[in-house]
Amino acid sequence: MLDTKAWAERAVEWAAKDPDGFLATVISALTPLFLARAVLSWKLAKMTEARGKEQKKTQKRQENTAKTKRLKKD
């Protein structure tokens, strides 16, 4: 079983003894996660934008179809 209290104490001790090394390690460990988050956010934005355009296109098509049906009835 993991002893989280001991692990946290070691981490705090390490941060107190070598703050530059600690920060460099934390930043280098988190950088790939930040990059992945940025890429996934960008992809999600593109997908949302494409879905919105497709919905507008479909709505316009339906409006035009309904308009032509009304004109044919008249």
Q: Report low-confidence residues grouped into runs of 5 or more.
A: none
Helical coverage, percent range: over 70%
Largest sheet features: none
Rounded mean pLDDT score: 92
What's the tally of helices?
2
What is the distance, rounded to the nearest whole angstrom, between the alpha carbons of the first and last residues?
A: 79 Å
- Please state the CA-atom Rg, rounded to the nearest Å: 28 Å
Structural class by helix and strand composition: mainly alpha
What is the β-strand count?
A: 0
> What form results from the Cα inertia axes?
rod-shaped
How much β-strand is present in the residues?
Answer: under 5%
How many discrete domains? 1
What's the quaternary structure here? single chain
Order of helices and strands: HH
Transmembrane segments: 22-40
Organism: Myotis myotis
Keywords: Coiled coil, Membrane, Transmembrane, Transmembrane helix
Family: Belongs to the SMIM15 family.
